[in-house]
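Notebook entry, structure prediction.
Reason for the run: the old model in the group folder had no record of what sequence produced it. Starting over properly, with the input documented here first.
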Amino acid sequence: MKINPNGFREYDARWVFEKEIDIEGITNLGKGLGTQIISHTKKDNPRVIVGHDYRSYSEKIKKALIEGLITTGCNVEDLGLSLSPMVYFAQFNLKSDAIAMVTASHNENGWTGVKMGIKKGLTHAPEEMSELKEITLNQKFTTGKGNFKKKENFKKIYINDLISKNKINKKIKVVVACGNGTAGVFAPEILRGIGCEVIELDCELDWSFPKYNPNPEDLKMLHAIANVVKDNNADIGFGFDGDGDRCGVIDEKGNEIFSDKIGLLIARNLAPKYKNSKFVVDVKSTGLYSKDKVLNNNKCKTIYWKTGHSHIKRKVNIEKALAGFEKSGHFFFNKPLGYGYDDGINSAIQVCHLLNDQNKKMSELMGELPNTFQTPTMAPFCKDEEKYKVVDAMVKEVQKLQKENTKIDGQLISEVLTVNGVRFSLKDGSWGLIRASSNKPSLVVVTESPSSNSRKKKIFEFIDNLLQNTGKIGEYDQKIKD
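New structure, fully documented this time:
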């Protein structure tokens, strides 16, 4: 039996199949998850919804996972080929006790994993993941007698739920790109159903991913979408990841729009209709939310929170926020717009509503936002066993510099946020972030300035200087050019 302990990450479980986990390891994972579900629900035979993505080995892995779940006493209902959000939706629609979706999302072929959740609309957080790891590795399994049944045609219920609530009256021409991943079975039909004219790009299922991984942050995928948008005079382009919970956006001119800015445009569109709402964004997101006139005039509040889909999902749930936006492309819409979980197709639908309601082109809407100068996400190497200590030291250092009225490029530090590493803001709205990566031996550094490119660089130089002084960091994966 093989199961690499490092596969239990902060909120996702991912392994290279056969190298890091074998079939018996997957069955034990099922036993561990079943044991955990029973202990949380206090039921002998909890109902668990399962699904799998379109990889050549995903069905085999799902079967082994199901075997493990059944031996603990879980009653398993199998949806077959699914998107992660379809499995999340099923927990609400079918009133099940838990879910398990076999997917490695946008990871390269060879990877597998499981997204799981017990409380409706939420996936495992760090506490639940470490509990599952401990049960599974120590084989502290409950035994019981569960059963199995196939749930036929649930796909139609999920598709109809999204279409019926989201009809638009403007004919929007959209490019739908799925990178030959599972979203190809769902996204074109749903977007046509709400009233869009759809141009399909790589929507045929092909588990070898012949062109590129279905990943809306992959430049190859984004460039392919941009070309098709321009060639067809489309209004917008959408790129979906392998399990359909993320969406990337290209405007009508072929420009990629970072997801934090898309989130702000959606929030601005929703604010007049849903006054006094809360929005949750991750600490890597633009600082424009906090000073936005439309949001402030409608008494909407923005909360900056920990990066990671599981963290933002929970915060949206706890705060009863209307929506949450993560820079990686996970968007979360709460009632009445959704069920609180991340659904890439619902995210695309909300962008279509934006274009429908505002009756402007995407580039015009972007042009209405103040310009900002933002770095890409930069990751300097830092050992897993040292990265959190380094970040703790950075928190103390920045707080000390704020007290001492230290200036960065002539600006005082006006605010220090420590929910996830340290994010400090300057008087003009510029900011810098230092946090530990949740899944790699590295730190994460981002800076942004609404004032100038030069200030953005000065903040990076300030951060880089603090980090170099620790003697604990190595090479960056990428750095801003001089």
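Summary: The CA atoms of residues 37 and 336 lie 28 Å apart.
The old model has been moved to the deprecated folder.
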